[in-house]
Amino acid sequence: MSRLAQTEGLTDIQREILSTVRDFVDKEILPVATELEHRDEYPTAIVEGLKELGVFGLMIPEEYGGLGESLLTYALCVEEIARGWMSVSGIINTHFIVAYMLKQHGTEEQKEYFLPKMALGEIRGAFSMSEPGLGSDVSAITSKAVRDGDQYVLNGQKMWLTNGGSSTLVAVLCRTGEAQEGVAPHKAMTTFLVEKEPGFGDVRPGLTIPGKIEKMGYKGVDTTELIMDGLRIPADRVLGGAPNRGFYQMMDGVEVGRVNVAARGCGVARRAFELGVAYAQQRHTFGKPIAQHQAIQFKLAEMGTKVEAAHAMMVNAARKKDSGARNDLEAGMAKYLASEYCKEVVEDAFRIHGGYGFSKEYEIERLYREAPMLLIGEGTAEIQKMIIGRRLLEEYRTQD
User: Fold this and answer.
1) End-to-end distance of the chain based on CA atoms, in angstroms?
2) Which of 99, 116, 210, 220 has the most C-beta neighbours closer than 10 Å?
């Protein structure tokens, strides 16, 4: 058990779940992660093991076949999984966001149809907002959905779809109204629940998932485009049953996703610290382990402090959301701090390894390529600062 990143006030059930996940990571993920990552191979056996543990249904209510656990429990599990291999936590994250959106915003028919299968991992979720030309400006999406009787016809191109190939259910955000003067663009967007076959190419009439996007890191998990060309979706597959609520539904999902990304940053940073502190005690220079050199001790002190601080902020954000209170400020802060600290801790561990850190034989090389994704996923640092700044001004507004 690590001395760092401990969480006070957990129930016996939470501790048991975390212990089970931690054992699975140590036995089933860490021994194979680097090899699978170098081959960019989808971790089928790992995913099947997580299904058996019930991780895919961790936050799905018990009446729909899930474990009914809290966001905090889920985030702590994600932290452990990311410590083993961040790509595995990505496979779970998009599934979790779609399940959360269904639980919070879906019709009863949608919940009863999708959630029990999602809890078992039989239906695997992905969600899609981004497009090739818009970056962080979600309000500028151009993908359109036009009503045609009891169906909608969807056209457009989406980008950066995690689990694009392996998923069988995609929550897709489209524009369902024309821009009008005085009407905010985000009030004319709708989330559609798009079912498809797993794989690449034409996965249903009107829907194409091209091959995987080649990435610097975050390998194993498939990241794709999504192309809609006359895709017909029944009106009863509008999330929540009514159009023009999609932006709010997606932002609610992204908010909990930011806690997830913070948890991933905590897990990767903790693994980097473990590698750095272990190597520092094994490597000798000038007649003694480099851990006995003050310069290295200073690095370890900074790394450990960052791991602890990021974990505390992530836990605070998760608990705030679980309480039912607004947590966009806490989630933004946690995501921003954890991703930045993760990058810094990984780089310091890389420096401690010296030239060996540049070798693919050492695990830190993989972490060094994985950490940058967290700086972008679920909103860049700049987006988080905008959210944080606006919320702080709301909280500390002075009288005019």
Assistant:
1) 53
2) 99
Question: 224 has which bridge partners?
Answer: 161
User: What confidence tens digit (pLDDT) does each residue in 340-364 have?
Assistant: 999 999 999 999 999 999 999 999 9
d(CA 241, CA 225): 26
Q: Which of 225, 330, 365, 378 is catalytic?
A: 378
Q: Is 164:211 a contact under the CB 8 Å cutoff?
A: no
Whose CA is closest to 309, among 360, 344, 354? 344
Chain-centre distance for alpha carbon 363: 22
Closest CA to 82 of 215, 260, 302: 260
Quote the tokens at residue 28.
Answer: 């089933």
Rounded Cα–Cα distance for residues 167 and 164 (Å): 6
337's tokens = 């701090």
CA 54 from centroid of its chain's CA atoms? 18
CA 235 to chain CA mean position, Å = 28
Active site residue 361: no
106 contacts: CB under 8 Å, gap ≥ 6 = 114, 115, 239, 240
C-alpha R_g of the chain: 21
pTM beyond 0.85: yes
